[in-house]
Specification:
It contains seven helices and four strands, in the order αββααααββαα. It is mainly α and 171 residues long. The strands form two sheets. It has a two-stranded antiparallel sheet. The protein has a two-stranded antiparallel sheet with strand order 3-4.
């Protein structure tokens, strides 16, 4: 598990750092290899493509934004997502893979960048009090929910993508 961040600056730096490192790995992979099922999936014993890892990260990033904007308008929020429970995250990952299956690798890279930029803009619009000192969902602060669903999975995915790159002699 990743370390618990304690302020807005640390959160922004963690997201930017994780994104920048993974982005460099992504752009070094030839598009023709991005659909090969060679990356460890979110369900034990499954393999997914590099493109699916992008779909996963985009899906979670968009969920974080949806949660925040719905909650800020006092609308109900289905955590983690409508039709999924917290013990069904592997199924949710597969849902994200299907949702973005028709997108090109370049479109996925662009969407990942856009989603990350939107999350950073949201964090920049808030203060430490809103991010770290108010219980936002169950026992979690907003910052912790953001970290658990952005920088933490990006670091995890990067480990898997780098393993794929080593196996395919791209490192």
């Amino acid at each position: 598990m990743s370390s618990i961040l304690t302020n807005k600056t640390e959160l922004i730096n963690a997201i930017e750092s994780a994104y920048n490192k993974l982005h460099l790995d992504y752009v070094s992979i030839p598009e023709e290899l991005t659909r090969i099922k060679g990356v460890e999936g979110n369900i034990k014993g499954t393999l997914i493509g590099v493109s699916d890892t992008l779909a996963y990260l985009i899906g979670w990033g968009k969920l974080v934004l949806k949660w925040y904007y719905r909650k800020s308008r006092n609308e109900s929020v289905d955590f983690p997502a409508t039709g999924f429970k917290w013990n069904e995250l592997g199924l949710l990952a597969q849902h994200f893979h299907g949702q973005y299956k028709a997108h090109s690798y370049q479109e996925l890279l662009t969407e990942f960048s856009t989603t990350t930029t939107e999350i950073l803009a949201l964090i920049n619009s808030l203060d430490n009090q809103s991010l770290y000192n108010i219980t936002w969902y169950k026992q979690w602060t907003l910052a912790r929910m953001v970290q658990l669903n952005t920088s933490s999975p990006v670091k995890n995915i990067r480990t898997k993508v780098r393993k794929f790159k080593r196996l395919n002699h791209l490192i």
